[in-house]
From TrEMBL:
Pfam families: FMN_red. It comes from the Bacteria. SUPFAM superfamilies: Flavoproteins. GO terms for molecular function: FMN binding; oxidoreductase activity. Residues 12-147 form the NADPH-dependent FMN reductase-like domain. InterPro entries: Flavoprotein-like_sf, FMN_Rdtase-like_dom, NAD(P)H-dep_reductase. One of its GO terms (cellular component) is cytosol. The lineage of its organism: Bacteria, Bacillati, Actinomycetota, Actinomycetes, Pseudonocardiales. This is NADPH-dependent FMN reductase-like domain-containing protein.
């Protein structure tokens, strides 16, 4: 299933929120992130909050299966995964969501926003970098790593530093390049097959 029209269309970015805990810090980070992303004209952002998605832990088949979010994942040109670091890794709900899908990820770029205590979520991000290429997705080099972000929670929510905003800008520049390039490849492949 593909809804791509041209290589000049805005980039459809699925922001996947990986934490499903109650009273999670992901809400503050996602609020900041969506505000920052709203300033980028060439994006259409679709937040996919795994806390709102019912994906059972049993029943997955090799090659993925149709789920309530598969259409949204298919429609995306790129993914931005927001993940905490739990016990030196990423949440089980995030791995479950990845495993429920297969073709949705193929030939699309994935970027990461990680957060955690001292590490800023780097161990979770590095493990995710091992998984996505198996699904034919391209993980990009740049990432946003937020170390102890709860120390920057203000009256208006999460207050990113200048360095964090710079890291997000660099990540989105690289993600945008990959999204446009891989979308052009997918469009060309579809046209040649027609």
């Amino acid at each position: 299933m593909s809804t791509e029209t041209t290589t000049q269309s805005p980039i459809r970015l699925a922001v996947i929120i990986g934490s499903v805990r109650h009273e999670r810090f992901a809400d503050a980070i996602t609020g900041w992130l969506l505000t920052e992303l709203a300033a980028i004209d060439s994006l259409e952002v679709d937040p996919i909050d795994l806390a709102d998605i019912d994906l059972p832990l049993r029943g997955t088949r090799p090659g993925g299966t149709e789920t309530v979010i598969s259409g949204r994942l298919h429609a995306a040109d790129a993914y931005l995964v927001v993940t905490p670091e739990y016990n030196h890794s990423f949440p089980a709900a995030l791995k479950n969501a990845i495993d429920w899908h297969f073709t949705e990820w193929a030939y699309k770029p994935v970027a990461f926003v990680g957060y955690g205590a001292g590490s800023g979520g780097i161990r979770a991000v590095e493990q995710l970098r091992l998984i996505f290429p198996e699904l034919r997705a391209t993980t990009i080099r740049d990432a946003v790593l937020l170390s102890a972000p709860w120390t920057r929670l203000g009256p208006n929510g999460y207050e990113g530093t200048e360095g964090e905003r710079g890291a997000l800008a660099a990540t989105m520049t690289e993600l945008g390049w990959w999204a446009r390039t891989l979308r052009a490849g997918r469009v060309a492949e579809r046209v040649s097959a027609a």
